[in-house]
Amino acid sequence: MPVIQVQLFEGRTEDVKREYAKAITEAAVKIMGCSAESVDVIYQDIKKSDWATAGKLWSD
Hints:
This is 4-oxalocrotonate tautomerase. It holds the Pfam family Tautomerase. Helix content is 32%, strand content 30%. A two-stranded parallel sheet has the order 1-2. The protein has a two-stranded antiparallel sheet with strand order 3-4. With 60 residues, the chain is an alpha+beta fold. It has one domain (3-57): 2-Layer Sandwich (Macrophage Migration Inhibitory Factor), CATH 3.30.429. The termini are far apart. A hairpin with a 2-residue loop joins strand 3 (52-53) and strand 4 (56-57).
């Protein structure tokens, strides 16, 4: 039962998330040999002010 957590900047549409979840699920089924029903994809939308790389906020 793979649980796949995806963290990304907020603002993606439901259609984009739906398409990405479908692609991730299909890849998991193909590579891991599991059923599609066993794959969970959890999205976490992150504000740019809550994410930093190399010591700099993405919102800066």
